[in-house]
Each structure stands twice: as structure tokens, then as C-alpha cells.
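Please, structure for the following, as C-alpha cells.
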Amino acid sequence: MIDIALITDENYLNQVIITITSLSLNSNKNKNYNVYVLCNNVAVEKQSLLKNYSNRNIKIHTIDAQDYIKHFPEFKNGNFHVTKSALIKFYLPVIFKDLDKILYLDSDILILKDLYEINSINLSDYYIAAVKNSYAYPGAEEYLFKHNIKTNEYFNSGVMLLNLKKMREDNVSEKLIDYRINNKTFCMDQDALNAILGKKIKLLSYRYNLQITPFEDNTFDKFCKLYNDYYAKSKKEALKQAYIMHFADKNKPWIYNRAKYSKLYKQYWQKAKLRQKFPKLHEITRQSVLRKIMLTIKLLFGDF
């Protein structure tokens, strides 16, 4: 049995459904999945809609999780496209007190292959197995130092195989909560997770969390160097070997035209048979140089 956790509020229901649809279409039908959708203020009838996507080998469960994060303030700094719902990640060891490990997935992803291989990774004494977050910005090292994020590799929190048993033993949930409340960081959840879990991380190949923005924005040689991962010989081969495709920035493929990636996402949208039509896409406008400079200054010297 493979246990998976996702998080949603009412704004992300379609995306959760599409992630589940991609799992259903690309999973090994001889493997069984328990998919737990942690809901923040999602109406009961909409939770029932999620459960309708259960099938022979995939069982969908919904859990009301809003009470876990109601004490957090409304953070006004940082990456605004990530909502407070992401902080439910901190409570996974508590919510799943009877599980030793769980595979957490964000909902802005497509699952392209069966996930048995990643779920089978031996965590041993590690808190987490995850993929490096390679999309760095100028001043990143100073930012990490300022916020006491001492990690072997700064990882992306959108795909995480978590050692819940060890996290409970070491009271990790309490440490995550304390860090987030007392540090005005840019990322809603990712900085805290790196600060607390980053010393005990098992780093994975980018195949398990192919983050599309650095993949698009770099030559393949530079992309491989970012990850120190030369598994594939070309971008075409890397896409073919990817287990998970992750749209980790604000330019989501259901909002902005990301060429072949939006086309692929639309195919899964249609296969999910959602009531809403696939929305009309906007063109991406890249950040200006001045905007990037201002963001860097704010990160380093602002009230983060």
C-alpha cells in the first residue's frame, strides 16, 4: 500500500482532481494507493466530489484539517501564490499518527509514472527524501544565513517522502511551527522545512520532481549541473524519464500559456471530466531586470 497526502482549499480542487487523475492513468493497476486529501475549509459536498475519483486501486479519503492552522496569522510577506493551507504540511506526523511514512505531493503537479519506486526508498535515519530546489535567486546564500537555514541541500517541498516515525520521535512538528511563527521568511512552508529537516535529507534525482521553470530556462547541460545529475542525455529523454512534472512557480499551466506543458495539462484536465471548461490562457510576461533587483533587495534587507 502506498500512502499519499495532498492539501487543498476550495481554490485548488480542480488541481487536486487533475493530480489524482494523472495518478490513476499512470499508476500500476496492481499497486494500491491510499490518497488522503487534507482540506482547508472545503464544503462537504465538494469533498464528496473528490471521493468520486476513487477506483479499483486508488482510494480517496478526505480529512478536515483547517483547525490545525487556524492559530497561524495571515502572513503578508513572501510568495503570495502559496496560501496558508501549505502549513498543514507541518502537521503530517500528527495527523497520520499510525503511519511510519507518507509521500506528500503538491497539487500543481502531473504524475507521469507509477510512484512505487519513490515510495520504496529507504529513509533509514533521514527525516526526508526530496529533490533539490535549483531555481536560486541572487543573494540566496545571504538569505539562508540570515534565517538560520543550515541545510546540506535546499530542497523543494512539493514532493517529499517523509519519515513520520522519526519526525514524531524528534518533535519535528513543534519545531516547524515555532520556526514559522518566529521567522519572517519568504516561503510559506519551504524555508521552515529546510531549516528543520535539511540536515537529515536524502537527496533524490530530479526525475522525481522535475521543476519545469529551471528546466525551461536553462540549457540541458546547465540544468544537469544545477542538480549534479546526468541521468539523461537530452531534455527529451529527461521528460520521458520523469516521474513527476512540477509547476512550482506562479506561472501555472492552467492560467498561463506554457506551450507544450499547458497543452499536456489541458489533456489531463479533459480526461478528468471536470465541469468547468479549460480556461483561456494568458501569455507569460517575464519579470523585468529592475523587478528582480527589487525582489533581491527586499529578500536581503526588507522585513522578511
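Residues 108 and 247 are 6 Å apart (CA to CA). The first strand starts at residue 2 and ends at 8.
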